[in-house]
Design a protein that fits this description.
This protein is α/β, with parallel strands linked by helices. It has one domain: Response regulator (Rossmann fold). A 5-stranded parallel sheet has the order 2-1-3-4-5. The longest helix is centred in the first third of the chain and has 13 residues. The radius of gyration is 14 Å and the shape is globular. The termini are close together.
Length: 133
């Protein structure tokens, strides 16, 4: 089992991001957490080398419904990245959508490891760690 070191949240809602941070820290996670309020900003971050290497998040929590580039657009662009930039990140859809077609489409995408309806709860976060790490 690999150690979870880095998490990225991509969600345009500030209050949701604060709740997500509180949840994962209450679960005992002490690694690096970065929050992006737009998919575009997250892609810029993921494609920018820092100290000669690309960021290597273990988990990318991704909202589907955002202004500008939505989660689907992010997945399209993310799939075009070089494997070194993907770094085996697990993309977890974290959305308010309860539409079964969204869930089906997301889970059919080879980049998506899981689908979770907001809000992220401690039990769900721990379940994600158990299933994927």
């Amino acid at each position: 089992m690999q150690r979870l070191k880095s998490i990225i949240f991509i969600d345009d809602d500030h209050a949701t991001n604060l709740l997500n941070l509180k949840t994962i820290h209450a679960s005992g996670f002490d690694g690096e957490v970065e929050v992006f309020r737009s998919a575009e900003d997250a892609l810029i971050h993921l494609t920018s080398k820092k100290n000669g290497t690309y960021p290597r998040p273990n988990i990318v929590f991704l909202d589907l419904n955002m202004p500008g580039m939505d989660g689907w657009g992010f997945l399209k662009q993310f799939s075009l990245l070089h494997p070194a930039q993907l770094a085996n990140a697990k993309v977890i859809i974290l959305t308010s959508s309860v539409d079964p077609t969204d869930k089906k489409a997301a889970l059919q995408n080879s980049l998506v490891a899981d689908f979770v309806v907001k809000p992220l709860k401690q039990e769900e976060f721990k379940g994600i760690l158990k299933r994927h790490f």
